[in-house]
Every structure is written in C-alpha cells, then in structure tokens.
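Issue 218. Parser rejects a valid record. Input:
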Amino acid sequence: MAEQQKERLATSHAVVRGVMAATIGGSLLLLSGLTLTGTVIGLTVLTPLLVLFGPVLVPAAIAVFLLVAGFVTSGGFGLAALSVLSWMYKYLTGRRPPGSEQLEQARARLASKARDIKESAQHRIDQAQSS
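Output the parser choked on:
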C-alpha cells in the first residue's frame, strides 16, 4: 500500500512538473512572439524615418558613442589610478596589502640576479686585466 502511494506521489509530482514546464514554456514562447511582432512593427514604422534622417543620425550616433566611450574610459583610468594609489599608501604605511608578498619576492629575486651579474662582470674584468 505504501509503495502505491509513493508511485502515485511520484506520478503526481511528474505531472505537476510537466504542467509547470508547459506553462512556463508557453508563456516564454508567447513573450518571444510578442517581442518579434513588436520588432517587426517598429522596423516597419521607423525604416522610412531612418532612410530620411540617416545622413544626420549616423554621424551623430558615432559622435555620441565616442563621447560616452571617452567618459567611460576616463572613469576607468581614474578608478584604476585611485586603487593603485590606495594600494601604494597601504604598502608604504606597512599595512601589507594583497600582493605585497609577491612584490617582496620579486624584489629579492631581482636583487639576487643583479648581484650575480655584478659578480660575473667583475670576474670578467679581473680576467681581462690579468691577461
């Protein structure tokens, strides 16, 4: 008896899932159809206007795009500069910002390589002078 109830419950859940999926799918299909219809009607109405005003609208749109792109780029560079200055302030005041350990490791490796190159150059100079 308990198995039959479990089967009925599983079947009813499957039916509910199917009905919900069909409802959501149908709603989305209707919405996409309405969007397509609105797009076609809008293009039909606006195409003559775009043909008439195209020589004015296209350069204006390009100018607006360039203006907006310039402001967005300027804001991005400003934000990047502020974050770098904030990181440098934290680093210089000793608060150990993220990445400072990597900077210290790179500095140590660079100093080690510089010492190696200096010693190698000094060795070569000494060999050349003794010859």
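Fixed in the parser; the record now loads. The chain has two helices and no strands.
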